[in-house]
Amino acid sequence: MNLETITKINKAIEPAKQIALIIPEDVTIDQLCSATALQNALQQKGKITQIFTSCKNLPKLEFLQNHL
Predict the structure, then answer these.
(1) Beta partners for 50?
(2) What is the pLDDT along the chain (68 residues), one digit of tens a residue?
């Protein structure tokens, strides 16, 4: 991702106080980990975040237990 794209994304989310992160029903481990990492980064900036999915059985990952 280039710097211009990152700058546009940061500018778009800057005014937001609450952000929903939506991942697909057939979520992969990479998507779940990416959403969790993004959630942590946004929370460090003071944003209230929530991850949403219609997936019935999320992948079980020991190191994510405190985040899901």
Answers:
(1) 20
(2) 899 999 998 899 999 999 999 999 999 888 988 999 999 999 999 999 999 999 888 777 776 666 55
